[in-house]
């Protein structure tokens, strides 16, 4: 299955701005990417907390304004947790090729998160390139598991 031309939304806090800027340039130069939207931060002095930026970006995916997100903070963990609070969004902090692959192929994650303090920039660049090539197969055995996640999300929303 070939990958579509992705519309990517990016977010970071002040601990991830260098990686966000580097990865954004890579994405803009990749023929598999149709567009890149940056929701910030854009200055090292901007101390906006990552949950705000993560949720803003995740809501763009939820609304159909973007297909995927690439988010960066110090560890990748907090920004992923915040994105996962948005209904229908699945985000994962990944640090190796297998996790990136499985985040999409097994879990239909729309958001890839990195930690600038824990993943080297060249690894992050390579993982991003790999991520663009993965497409979830809704007829795969993993689809039923992803549906279970969605069902639990719906159940929790009713409480």
TrEMBL record:
Gene3D superfamilies attached to this UniProt entry: Sugar-phosphate isomerase, RpiB/LacA/LacB
Gene Ontology MF, one: isomerase activity
Domain of life: Eukaryota
GO biological process terms on file: carbohydrate metabolic process
Entry keyword annotation includes Electron transport: no
Keywords, comma-separated and alphabetical: Isomerase
UniProt cross-references to Pfam families, sorted A to Z: LacAB_rpiB
Family: Belongs to the LacAB/RpiB family.
Protein name (database record): Ribose-5-phosphate isomerase
Lineage, top ranks: Eukaryota, Fungi, Dikarya, Basidiomycota, Ustilaginomycotina
